[in-house]
């Protein structure tokens, strides 16, 4: 069901406000929403390689002590591909600069300072 004209205008206003308030975040979100990421394509290819190893290990009958080692390797490759697809190339929380501006404090400290400032502003404005 398509959006009405009013809903579309509101959505455009929200998008424009986002670009005006935080263009870096908006461009990051926009880049991520454009089709499959490189990590997901790699994960699919890796998954297919793992599946080939899994099936190929059973067909080839390569065993060590009665255990299909090649199939186990294939399963582990498939599992790793699944983890890669779930992660999707997102940066870890440690590498995100939430405080804005450079500094020597770790990002977690900057986040706590910002939260504390916001909390204090709420009570000083009232």
UniProtKB/TrEMBL annotation:
Keyword annotations from UniProtKB, A to Z: Membrane, Transmembrane, Transmembrane helix
| Keyword match Membrane | yes
Q: Which ranges form a coiled coil? A: none
Q: Which InterPro entries match?
A: DUF3040
Q: Which domain of life is it from?
A: Bacteria
Q: Where is this region: Disordered?
A: 94-126
Q: Where exactly are the transmembrane stretches of this chain?
A: 41-60, 66-86
Pfam families (alphabetical): DUF3040 (PF11239)
Task: Specify residue ranges for compositional bias: Basic and acidic residues.
Answer: 110-126
Report what the protein is called. Answer: DUF3040 domain-containing protein
Organism whose genome encodes this protein:
Gordonia defluvii
